[in-house]
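Posting this for the archive.
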Amino acid sequence: MRILFVTHYYEPDQGAAAIIITRLARKLAARGHQITVLTSLPNYPHGRILDGYRGRPVVVEERDGVRVVMTWLWATPSPRISRKFISQISFMLTAGLRGLGIPRPDAMLVEAQPIFTNLVGTALSRLKRVPYVLDVHDLWPDHMLAVGALTATHPVYRTARWLVDQTYRGASAIITLTPYLEQVIRGYLGAAAADKVRTVYSGVDLARFRPGLDAADFRRRYDLGERRLVAYIGTLATIYDPLTMLETARRFVDRPDVRFAIIGTGTQQAVVRQRLAQGDLPNVRWIEWVDYADIPQAWAATDIAFWALRDHPLHRGALGTKLYEAFASGVPAAVALEGVMADLLRASGGGLSVPPGDVDGLSAAIRRLLDDPAFYRQCSQNARAYAEQHFDAEQAVLAYEAALEQAVRR
């Protein structure tokens, strides 16, 4: 098949979205499909276009058998929603213009978020008269409700809601990251969703992320020492609650055998910086960014993964890439959240969950994993076994391939 991807994020961008879509494109190309990716000039997560790409309206590259067409956008490091919207809209406009010149494919895979990428991708599919599969990793414009930017009665939200629902209805298939997202979209579509919405875990490369990797060099480079490491690895996005995480770390200041690490940056980085500036968390190491090539070693250096989500119904459907990677690496998780991830932890036996904001509970969960070797060992084994059974990225590729082939047949 000739397949056109439309996505805001693609390598050399970093972060979960770019990693997942890049891996999928490469693996589909390796299976003999002709893949073209329409994306933005690389700028994530730092909010500035990378050297070598600046000042160029369009860059076309061939990478790993994939043709990558990158168009200009107004990049910004600002966490303000209004600035991010301007950036996303600029990509929508340039991608729409450049996308018209891309030869007609057999099918399209459109990333549903940000909302403007969804809109330009589905518009191109109509103009080119080809079917599209919608890939949903997050709910927009629902996210605007979760962060308090809009209310459900606001005209902007209602307009966006109608537009997004039209893209749902027009899709030949909709692939969601979690069962919760599938359930919500089925609620929006009703009977129209009967046979076209399904959940596919994007998964992880089980060969790259595995127990037993040598982490000595990573620990040395980032001055982590030999203490047991409790780490958050990932983007500090709006849904996370860094204050709960850092207050939990403060409960372990008296443990000379334990160190905490926050590895990542994002919209919550100012919160982390301000809290660490208080000077009462000497046991916390903040590493603002690690190249994705080093992430397997980062997990190998980690003894326990931990994180906390803000308490909002929408966040209960979140399933971060960090859980795939931690489980594949045999790293148990201790988390403060409810919903899909809590259910998965209970089903897998790969760690412990407590309610959002429960510092005492999260501290107790971490202490149990630290101080009960038999329990820790069982959780580690359970995590890897669950990843092998449910999070194999190769199975995800087959599922996407089948959805695209079915779209072409229809």
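The chain has 15 helices and 14 strands. Residues 57 and 397 are 32 Å apart (CA to CA).
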